[in-house]
Amino acid sequence: MLSWGNQFNICCFMDNHHYQAGSHTYECLLAAGAWRWIRLTAGHALPLLHAFAAHTNDWLFGHLGFGLQYDCMGVTNRFADAAGFPDGYFFVPEHLLLLRPGELLVSSYSLAAGQVLQQITSQPAGIPAGMGAAPRFKAQYSREDYIRIIKALQAHIRRGDCYEINFCQAFAAKEVIADPVAVFHRLGELSPTPFSAYYKLNDSYCLCASPERYFRLADGRVWAEPMKGTASRHPDAADDLGSARRLREDPKEQAENVMVVDLVRNDLSRVCRAGTVQVEELFGVYPFPRVHQMVSTITGELQAGKGWTDVVAASFPMGSMTGAPKKRVLELISRYETTGRGIFSGSIGYVDPEGGADFNVVIRSLQYNRESGYLGYLVGSGITGYADALYEYDECLLKAAAIRSLWPVPGSDLQG
Questions:
Q1: CA distances (Å), 190 to each of 118, 184, 234, in order?
Q2: Distances in whole angstroms, Cα of residue 163 to Cα of each of 159, 323, 334, 341, 382
Q3: Which residues are known to be catalytic?
Q4: CA-closest candidate to residue 411, choices 130, 204, 172
């Protein structure tokens, strides 16, 4: 299905890898080709997106880039997306396939459903055999430079500028020739996650193995599921349970999680009915193939007349990828991060004709530009006043473990 969709200039494939938790409506979705579309540039993007969604009243797929922080929080983005993604982009798919247990729904503006299925089944069996030569990733910061920056951020925390800040670092390779479909399949084998996405926009690709949901909207109710807190998995069952238990009971991880929960509660209260915003789950620890993650769930009932674009306006960029207070943290991110986040820390998702929506958080992902040969990824962690800089650096590498293992170790240069 993905191989067929990849022939189009624009496609979005979303796969939950059979995770049953998280209220997934579909097992996977494929949107291919753009029947209508809107390209967004930070400045007046959200009013234009709202008008476009209202006018089309159709399925929409696309992304929100980190640069849209300007529209939501008034903070300017200093750097362009290295992979070439615009600040935002949404499209009405020419072809749409929705898979859920025992049922495949097919819709197309230009072909009969049978023609779509015939074209898909006529694709060569299997997946591309080769991902391409191993890229040599170069770290944005040395370990020593990273520690120096973390200490500078902690000085801001001690002065009372902020309570917690998500700081990201980049790893990039140049002149890469890769097969994005093969890389995405391999990433899914190494790290199957509930909010994975293959997203292609002309020569720009995002290969995403995200375990985190930004928000889901259905029947006037919104769910946000911020993720803060990471611990390693272990092959021994007793050691693995111990790692999960230590994560759940760790005061530092709980403090970070509470901060983002309070931030999300405040965001949602701007668009939800008074008294309806509540914490459905606090400090839930969930196992993923390579890490345990601490996830909390906040819910609320939208005010009359509010929809998914209002949720975005009130809550983007998401709290788990920023910190508190959000605007001051975004200003510090702009000052200290020397690479643009682009689509990373943003979101890929879809909206249905009834106004329901589901969006992920773009983390644990590779960004690739076929024309320029750029291939890169970013990883981040939450920094507090009592964070250990060396531990945070190692946590970043843990989060990127699946990406780092895609190619042999000699293809990486983690020390910069």
A1: 31, 10, 15
A2: 10, 7, 17, 21, 10
A3: 212, 228
A4: 172
Query: Inter-axis angle of helices 143-159 and 389-399, to 10 degrees?
Result: 120
Q: How many CB atoms lie under 10 A from the CB of residue 305?
A: 7
Task: Report d(CA 336, CA 152) in Å as an integer.
Answer: 9
Unique residue bearing structure tokens 């749409």: 96
What is the three-class DSSP state of 342?
A: coil
280 CB-near residues (< 8 Å, 6+ apart): 223, 297, 298, 299
Of 208, 177, 27, 181, which Cα lies nearest the Cα of 102?
27
Q: What is the pLDDT of residues 63-107, one digit of tens each?
A: 999 999 999 999 998 898 999 999 999 999 999 999 998 899 999
**Contact predicate 159/321, CB 8 Å:** no
Q: Are strands 137-139 and 412-413 parallel, antiparallel or unpaired?
A: parallel
Nearest to 215 by CA among 207, 223, 203, 227: 223
3-state helix, strand, coil in the chain (%, to 5): 30, 35, 35
Burial of 180 (0-12, 13-18, 19+ CB in 10 A): buried
pTM of the model: 0.95
Phi-psi region of 147 (alpha: psi -120 to 50; beta: other; left: phi over 0): alpha
pLDDT, tens digit, 9 for 90 and up, residues 9-48 = 999 999 999 886 557 789 999 999 999 999 999 998 999 9
Residue pair 387/394 in contact by the 8 Å Cβ criterion:
no
Rounded to whole angstroms, the Cα distance separating 287 from 248 reads 12
